[in-house]
Amino acid sequence: MLPQKTKKSALIPYGITLDSYSYFWTHDKYIIIRRKLLISPDFALDKTAKQADADVTNGKVGFYGANWDYPLNAKIREPLKQNAPDANYVPIDAFKNAEGKYIKETYNENGLFSFIPKSSKHTELAMKYLNGMATPEVLFFLQFGEEGVNHTMVEDIPQRIAQTGENMQMSNLNLDYTLVVNGAELGDTEKNVKTYAAALATGDKAYEQLAVDSYKINTTDGFTGFYYGVPNEASIKYGKTLGDMNKQMMDRLIVVKPAEFDALYDKLVKEYMDAGGKAVQEENVKHYREIKESSK
């Protein structure tokens, strides 16, 4: 996962993971990596990931973990091509568990939630609007615009035509106008993947294949989070505090001496649970049992 530098290799493998900390596979190995300066000594200060982005694009990083479409982001791939024209990103499925699977969390099948507020005075019209948007012909036009103007069809896949002025689409796949989908939607998973890959790659066939390969890895051995359907009041109350504590815990556990890891871990988990984590957990368990009971 951390290849030695060679003159022949300019590849940057990246793991398809939940977040940028997912390469923290075991504490001992991470400590070795940190002490050999294979990660930035100032990682804890990089709250916006700007330094991580800079390290990747400047060739300082040999492996990193991120969402599957991260390297296709223009701010990541363009500087890399400028700094090292022969360099490339290679998706890999990292971190096999004891069962031989590469477990990772994926989006729920619906992709996103659209709702009409209870306070709305035009619920019926809003529902008609969403239903109309979900009509395949309408949704296709909203996503890809007019053929020959905003896109061309290549092997049944719409390829974007960059436009300015009144024909310009405001975002990739016009996501701001397609409230009922999250990404490309052509009614076929394979076409969806290829279409989204083409949109991300903006004409670069190598990156287009990279997107397809990344997506395949992302959806292998994936699981979806449980949908409770009701708000967790404890999470609303303690969420901000617990979120901040979680980030601090990760930072402290990475830099602690190996011999002190277990004691610090136990201490931090207790502090987290006492600060609201236990209340959130108990409410989730309560809702889970109620939902399971009602579905019998």
Short recap of the structure:
The protein has helices at 27-35, 50-57, 74-83, 123-133, 136-144, 189-201, 205-218, 233-255, 261-294; strands at 11-16, 64-66, 88-92, 104-105, 151-154, 157-160, 222-223.
Question: How would you characterize this protein structure?
Answer:
The structure is a single chain. The chain is mostly helical and 296 residues long. The protein has helices spanning 27-35, 50-57, 74-83, 123-133, 136-144, 189-201, 205-218, 233-255, 261-294; strands at residues 11-16, 64-66, 88-92, 104-105, 151-154, 157-160, 222-223. The chain has a three-stranded parallel β-sheet. Strands 4-7 form a two-stranded parallel sheet. It has a two-stranded antiparallel sheet with strand order 5-6. Mean pLDDT is 81; it is low at 1-36. It folds into three domains: 11-105, no CATH class; 123-223, no CATH class; 233-294. The relative contact order is 0.11.
